[in-house]
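Worked example 3 (structure in, sequence out).
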């Protein structure tokens, strides 16, 4: 049995890899070699030192995963091309694996000059392919088979040369051939010297790739390995992984029309003064992003914020509650789901002035009139969309939130305590619906938004029947 040697872990893995099933390119050897009997045998004879045993454990875990839940496995083909940023690919692989994504690495010859395949193999637990003529692929069709199980290909880093090859349909090594023969989305993370990036040839190639539907992530601007500074730096591993996680989000609300309100409103007292609140809009924007990730068509009606518009959403900027109300009424037709995250001012000055009110030494009074309750209005239309409300409370959170949900006659309300949520990047939410309450412990708002969207999609499905 080849496993019983005291060789380096790379050799160890290579030896295992030599035994694969002849009917598939998947390394089914994991199932075949590691029968319980073999594990016990290895254990008893103590042939594997700790590191090796860790590898074995990972193989066993992976085996269990592939056999029991292969339908749910997220697979990414990570292509690495030749550039100094190739070292960041190891971190990309590590973070992806940490997020339960099965990473299959393919490296070009130049990539192997910057980083060793053994590193990627150890981090991903998968054989790394580099050769178009790899004889381990039983039908010798590595260029087809390796990508067939992948949900997407990410080339990180994508060198100027590789971008040129992609744009022109070259297929002269394994990775370029795989990309040409793929049936899944292709993401590229360019990385190169700033002048290479700015060169008209590179820019032309990028336009071609965009036209071909290739998704380009980055690059960023900054200090470069060559000592120069400018555009062409590959995005950091964390950012690339975030992009991939977005891609892997289940499309729970595919093509559903979602109308979202976000941010505060501003109610003018005079030409320079007004009433507003501390809402930053972060939660509403996070909900918009999560809805986009879930495949929805999103219209975001936003009060004044300093946030970046979620790409892919239709953004309508408003200032006052009245403007928000008008925009919501206009956007309502065809809306499947309305999520009212905005902290709409409950009152507006009854007599606002177009001119700046002059300072006086005596008291002046401000008469306030109620603003329309936008959510309640939408929920009470004859054929309302599925309505979700938010409540920020300072006390009696649960009692007030549930009472609010009933009063507004909405199926779902997300509540949070004001000091924990306002202007923060994190929040703790409690969701109230007809089945009771569901706690979402403190987490970044984007994660809370993803949980919320998942919850919405489940309730919406039942509600819509
Ligand atoms: O009653 P309260 O203002 O706390 O309710 C909060 C919920 O109602 C939020 O979803 C908010 O967007 C919505 N709302 C509204 N119009 C208002 C006030 C609140 O749509 N004028």
């Amino acid at each position: 049995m080849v496993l019983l040697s005291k060789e380096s872990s790379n050799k160890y893995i290579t030896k295992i890899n030599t035994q694969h099933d002849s009917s598939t390119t998947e390394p089914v050897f994991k199932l075949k070699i590691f029968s319980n009997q073999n594990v016990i045998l290895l254990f008893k004879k103590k042939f594997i030192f700790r590191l090796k045993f860790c590898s074995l454990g990972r193989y066993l875990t992976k085996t269990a995963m592939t056999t029991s839940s292969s339908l749910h496995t997220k697979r990414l083909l990570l292509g690495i091309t030749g550039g100094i940023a190739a070292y960041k690919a190891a971190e990309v692989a590590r973070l992806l694996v940490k997020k339960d994504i099965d990473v299959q690495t393919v490296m070009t010859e130049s990539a192997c000059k910057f980083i060793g395949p053994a590193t990627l193999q150890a981090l991903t637990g998968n054989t790394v392919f580099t050769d178009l003529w790899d004889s381990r692929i039983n039908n010798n069709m590595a260029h087809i088979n390796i990508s067939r199980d992948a949900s997407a290909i990410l080339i990180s880093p994508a060198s100027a040369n590789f971008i040129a090859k992609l744009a022109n349909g070259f297929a002269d090594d394994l990775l370029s051939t795989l990309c040409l023969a793929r049936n899944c989305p292709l993401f590229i993370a360019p990385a190169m010297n700033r002048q290479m990036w700015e060169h008209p040839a590179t820019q032309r190639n990028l336009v071609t790739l965009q036209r071909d539907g290739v998704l380009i992530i980055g690059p960023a601007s900054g200090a470069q390995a060559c000592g120069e500074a400018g555009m062409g730096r590959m995005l950091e591993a964390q950012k690339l992984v975030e992009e991939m996680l977005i891609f892997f989000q289940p499309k729970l609300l595919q093509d559903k029309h979602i109308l979202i309100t976000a941010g505060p409103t501003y109610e003018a007292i005079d030409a320079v003064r007004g009433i507003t609140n501390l809402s930053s809009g972060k939660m509403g924007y996070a909900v918009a992003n999560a809805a986009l990730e879930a495949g929805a068509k999103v219209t975001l009606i936003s009060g004044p914020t300093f946030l970046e518009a979620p790409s892919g959403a239709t953004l309508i900027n408003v200032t006052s509650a009245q403007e928000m109300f008008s925009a919501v009424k206009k956007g309502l037709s065809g809306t499947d789901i309305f999520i009212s995250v905005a902290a709409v001012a409950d009152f507006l000055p009854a007599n606002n002035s177009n001119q700046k009110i002059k300072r006086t030494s005596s008291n002046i009074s401000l008469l306030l009139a109620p603003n329309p309750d936008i959510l309640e209005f939408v929920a009470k239309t004859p054929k309302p969309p599925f309505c979700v409300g938010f409540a920020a409370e300072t006390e009696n959170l649960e009692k007030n939130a549930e009472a609010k949900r009933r009063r507004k006659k909405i199926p779902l309300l997300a509540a949070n305590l004001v000091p924990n949520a306002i202007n923060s990047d994190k929040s703790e939410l409690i969701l109230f619906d007809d089945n009771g309450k569901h706690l979402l412990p403190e987490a970044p708002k984007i994660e809370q938004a993803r949980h919320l969207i998942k919850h919405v999609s489940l309730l919406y499905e039942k509600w819509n029947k």
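Notes: The chain has 19 helices and 19 strands. The pocket of cytidine-5'-monophosphate is lined by residues 261, 321, 340, 342, 344, 346, 371, 373-375, 389-391, 404 (CB under 6 Å).
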